[in-house]
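As a warm-up, study this chain.
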Amino acid sequence: MKVRKFTPAKIIKKHNSLTDGYIPKPPKQVLPDRLLNALYYKFEREGEIFRITMPELKRLLGLPNEKNDRRIYEAIRILQAPIVIRDFRYKGKEVAWLCAPFLSRVYRWKERLNEFEFCIDPMVIEAIKQKGGYTPLDINICNRFRTKFGLKLYEMFRRYANLPNNHGDIDSRAIGVVAKSIEELNNMFGTNYTSPSKLFSSSPTKSPPPINRALKEIERVTGEVYHCFYDKDTRSFIFSWGRRKEDLYPSVACIIPSKSIEPFAKWYMDHFADKVNEPAGYLRKIVQRIKENTMGNIEKYYQLYLLELGKDPKSCFDPKTNKFTY
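Now compare it with the structure written out below.
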């Protein structure tokens, strides 16, 4: 049986002070936001000062075949311009609003011309080091977005994905609802629209404005459907969504649905674990490794498990999310 090649997830836990913040300009460039996520990935693993080669940086940005480095240098310069971060603590005081560069400096030594050294601004570090909320993001998914509108709304939806809400008449599934003013969306997108219709149109015949384009791109990239309408009474854009596919999994990295993890773990023990001294403890370890997606050859074993259940592994796999659906 041929085993499908999987793309490993690259998960960041992006602090909500950055998820809620924004890069003011430019509205048509998504690469600076993708670069911020890539550098955050390095920061989480190596600290506030880290080195990276141009080929590695391109891989983290999803641009391994990019020959023109000019766009990357331009994105680096944009991250050295002030960005806005909200609501965190610094030296014992509450910070409501900060305008500072994400990158304090970037340089290359002459003896290592193909290697950059990045340094993140100290006050920004304080914001992202603090305990508090964060948004789990897979930068491989983020890198599939080609518009800033799509990526920023996707990050917003991930930020509020698990909101408990009883809106509407639907009792059988969780509904998430977020309201944003035109000023908040202009800040998020780096735009300067004064009319709601310039941001969102309910007419399918018109050329898609930013919100319509973003919702279509999110559906294309992730397969998830979100909704938006403009509420004239509150003068706000109302975004809503139902239960996401990702909510069916215990973590962003996990590729096995929650309902199947324990049965699969027991099947694995029965078939591949001999003479286990403490079966209960070993089962817990297997379950944890499945949830964290750290189990070796997990795709191969799970496909064998599905075959034994009489299921077609190919039909039980979603290539858009790189996850099994059964």
